[in-house]
Amino acid sequence: MINSKEILDRVNFLVEKHQPLVASDPYRLYYHLMPSVGLLNDPNGFVYYRGEYHIFYQWNPFATAHGSKFWGHSVSTDLVHWKEAPIILAPGEWYDKNGCYSGSAVVFEDQMYVFYTGNVKDENGKRDSYQCLAVSKDGIHFEKKGPVINVPDGYTAHFRDPKVFRKNNKWYMVLGAQTDAGTGEAVYYTSNNLYDWNFHGTLAGSGKNGLGAFGYMWECPDFFELGGTDILMVCPQGIEAKGYEYQNVFQTGYFSGKINDREEIFQHGPFREMDRGFDFYAPQTTSGPNGRRLVFGWMGNAEDENSQQPTTKYEWVHALTLPRELKWKNGKLLQHPVEELKSLRGKEIKFENTRLEKHKALRFQELVFEMIVDFNSFDTDCLTIEIGESKLIYYRKEQLFTFQRKHFSKPGLMEVRHCKLKELRSIHIFKDTSSIELFLNNGEEVFTSRVFDDNNVILLHIEDGSATLNIQKWDLKRV
Ligand code: FRU
Question: Where in the cell (predicted)?
């Protein structure tokens, strides 16, 4: 067994050693959750416990690359100001020796129960996985209880990311899985005591419920009810790009429908992508104290080898998205930045009914800001908002919104993402030093992306016709 005190000492040593370098990175974010050193990926265990929000995250403190994963931990009362807490899970036991992979947390009888995937590899690289439990009486110290579920027959060791929730007076666990036939699924279990779990098989998957072949593995499922609808949020791997859709290496989206518990089926509609940007993956939700459905995503995605992010020179990489609230409206999942983010607002600039015409651009300068643009009239076929070296363009005739950013590591190259959009009514922008989150038409479509630009000019301009708009813009404070 690996001595976890020794490992944690090594982590603390690294954090301290690299702290000055990390802090000197001009792309270090002002108001997003980031690793103090190394690589962060999925949000885990998002939960409200004893008056505080807890967010955990996949963390490799030893390198700016994937590897052995720990659970980092941050705590907040307002979702905006976070205090870093000690690591709660370090790999080391026989059942998690190669990584404490993603999972979730629930509160039961005033204790926090954390479920995660123990990732194990033998000397030949052969993988095993176990769904494991750890319990805490204070939300800070956790006791590992070991595996509660082994991989069932019919599935490969790509069986992970338990999301536990309560429904119909029992506990449910949904998991991402790969069948022996090499297809992706979400499966589920139920339990009365959080220790003993009954397997119910497929919740949704390739070839089920009208869905054709749909990827070779599904990761990081979440399941919740919103506005009377059951939603399975999930990240399928192995979906081919199609038109403007499925452009990232791995996808994030949801199925909506109704679970029929007795017949053990989830009747659902088609898969819809949740985000149109470059960097969004593995979102996880929790229910806040007043029933709000809150979500964090990983502001990253699997990388291709050519696009190392510039922050790796400063010994850190990736961040979580802003916390968002989910709403269900007209058969669609909407995302809104949480209200609490208003506490970051500093100096405000406001324009009302400003008219844009060709050769009459609006210009600002700011690196970190929030901006809301509402259109009163939209009589142009091409509207552009430049933010640093990134460009947001709406083509009215084509009913197309596009986002372009500078390629991280190929000089002179731009990359682009699109979504079809019938009309553009409003854009809500959160810009941090090296990220942009765009909420279009009140959260109907969202683009989340990292950007590494060299200027901080903001320009709004049109090619023809005119547009009138209201603009509110705030400086945002560093937390
Ligand atoms: C998703 C994922 C999960 C896994 C974790 C490991 O990004 O691959 O399926 O549990 O990351 O860090």
Answer: Cytoplasm
